[in-house]
Structure formats: C-alpha cells, structure tokens
Amino acid sequence: MRNYWLFKTEPVTFGWDRLERDRRTEWSGVRSYQARNNMLEMKLDDLGFFYHSSTKEPGIVGIVRVVREAYPDFTAFQRGGPYYDPKSTPAHPIWQMVDVEVERAELVVERVCARASHWAHSAVSARENHSSRRPPSSHCAQTAFSRPSA
Q1: Contacting residues for 68 by C-beta, under 8 A, at least 6 apart
Q2: Whole domain around residue 64: which residue ranges?
Q3: Residue 81 contacts residue 74 (beta carbons within 8 Å)
Q4: What is the CATH number of the domain that holds 35?
Q5: What local confidence, expressed as pLDDT, does residue 142 receive?
Q6: Where are the beta strands (DSSP E) in the chain?
Q7: Which one of 9, 55, 78, 87 is most buried, by most CB atoms within 10 A?
C-alpha cells in the first residue's frame, strides 16, 4: 500500500519553483529524530504533498514522489556546514534523507487551514488525501517532517 507524506519547506529555503527547475532533489538537512524515522519508512513511489510554510499564503503547491529510499545524509558529515553533526559519521550515520522528484506541478490546494501547525506533522491516509480543504484527522499513526531553514 502506498503511503502519503507531507514535505514541509519554506519557499525561500527550497521552494517548488526550484524543484520544478531541478526536477529531483535529495531531502537533506533534516534534524529531527521523528523525521529520520519516517524517512526510514518511506518506500519507492510513495507520494508526498509539497507544502510551503512561513508564507503569506501557506499551502500545498505540488506533489512529489519518493524515488530513492532512505540513505545517510551527507550534510551531517560536512564540517562547517549548517547541518554538520559531529556525532554522525559515515561509519555510523545518525541522519537519513530520501530523494524526491516532481510528480504533479499543478496547484493542489488554494489555502491551508489556519491550524496547519497542528496537522503539518501528520501523514495523510489514502482515504483522506483527496480532501483539499480539511487537514487529515488526528488518528494517523505516521508522521511527516519539515525541511529545515538554511
């Protein structure tokens, strides 16, 4: 069964425009254990809603597809980099990332519920993924994650 995830990012850090141009990216630099665990659960062809936060009109602006399952996040090994973690090594990586690519580029949601912070960390079940105006219910067992600000 396919899973659906929420990929939350600030457009000034990494926006939909850039993903459309690049077509594919690694989802690197995330430093949340919950997010890491979720990336370990992601499978090829899972879909995700690409969510712009911290904007005048936050919302889902496109759909991505997981094209590479979890692997060590190399940004944790880059000394002096914004996501460097001295506890994470290539031999014993702590942080993971997945690769995603553009699945659909049309606008998916006009406006997101004002309580987006409440549901931004909930995965979307297959039954709920067709609703464009309501957040997913709180009974979802899986959680999604945010891409950090640079």
Answers
A1: 26, 44, 98, 99
A2: 4-146
A3: no
A4: 3.10.590
A5: 35
A6: 4-9, 24-26, 47-52, 59-72, 96-104, 145-146
A7: 9
